[in-house]
Amino acid sequence: MGPPDPEHIAQLAGSQVHTTTRIPGGYVSDAIRVQMANGQSVFVKHTRHAPAGLFRSEAAALAWISDAGVGVPDVVGVGDDWLALEWIDEGEFTAAAQEALGRDIARMHRAGAEQFGAPWDGFAGPVPVPNDARDTWPAFLAECRIIPLAHASSLPAEIWRRLDSLLANLPDLLGPPEPPARVHGDLWAGNRMVNSEGVPVLLDPDAYGGHREMDLAMMRLFGGFPERVFDAYAEEFPLEPGWAERVKVNQLVPVLVHCAMYGGKWIGDADQILRSVG
């Protein structure tokens, strides 16, 4: 299957299509800008042979984050292997926008969730993972993220032994219990932007009810979030003591995603995390 045809986009957007242009961006999907005759634009993501449910889950996650009062692109339409979103003109990531982003992420987390998990399919990057409800955060993290992602990776036996040791001690490594937070699930710098009015916008979520320290640890893993963002978050929603010691274990999931997608050096990075927290 292919991306939606121009006539379908025209019906969804309420205007005729003027031009379509392939644009850079995205490690998994093709990115297309559709210019409408009325001057508006639509952003279309298209993934050939997309896993079943990928874009419908993203559309549901965007709506869930929007319900928390946090900026996301509006969904124009969704199909089996494509997602059409409003086009957002990018603005400057000013100090004010950084503070607003930190407070928005705190607001999203505070909005909470009914369970650890979500009523839609999970995708860690392009890798399908379960979102089945669990009663505790350690159980969800182990059974619905760490173990499935480890099985999707070609991990040597030695790393599996260290992983088994971590899983046995996981409840002691994750800090005080907290109720489920509304987490973005894939919060690296490429999935945040600021619109032309200076309002932060979150993109490409793998949202579910989880632990808020997961988002914050991923934000530190790849960089791109100034300390002003974290300071504003802490003012709005302070973390429990010991959060800094838990950053490494909370970075294991995104590293395992990269192990599943790319292998190579990422397997060594996963091993380093396991050695440091084991």
Folded structure, characterized:
The protein has helices at residues 6-13, 54-67, 95-111, 137-151, 157-168, 170-173, 212-222, 227-236, 247-250, 252-262, 265-277, and strands spanning 17-23, 30-36, 41-46, 75-78, 82-86, 122-124, 127-129, 181-183, 192-194, 200-202, 208-210. The model has no long low-confidence stretch (mean pLDDT 92). The protein folds into two domains: 6-86, Phosphorylase Kinase, domain 1 (2-Layer Sandwich), CATH 3.30.200.20; 95-277, Aminoglycoside phosphotransferase (APH), C-terminal lobe (Aminoglycoside 3'-phosphotransferase, Chain: A, domain 2, Alpha-Beta Complex), CATH 3.90.1200. The chain is built from eleven helices and eleven strands. The strands form four sheets. A five-stranded antiparallel sheet has the order 1-2-3-5-4. A two-stranded antiparallel sheet has the order 6-7. The longest helix has 17 residues, at 95-111. The radius of gyration is 19 Å and the shape is globular. Helices cover 43% and strands 17% of the residues. The N and C termini lie far apart (45 Å). Helix 5 packs parallel to helix 11 (265-277) and helix 10 (252-262) packs antiparallel against helix 11 (265-277). It is of the alpha+beta class.
Q: Gist?
A:
With 278 residues, the chain is an alpha+beta fold. Helices cover 43% and strands 17% of the residues.
Describe how the helices and strands are arranged.
Layout: H1 6-13, E1 17-23, E2 30-36, E3 41-46, H2 54-67, E4 75-78, E5 82-86, H3 95-111, E6 122-124, E7 127-129, H4 137-151, H5 157-168, H6 170-173, E8 181-183, E9 192-194, E10 200-202, E11 208-210, H7 212-222, H8 227-236, H9 247-250, H10 252-262, H11 265-277
Antiparallel strand pairs: 1-2, 2-3, 3-5, 4-5, 6-7, 8-11, 9-10
Helix pairs in contact: 3-8, 4-10, 5-11, 10-11
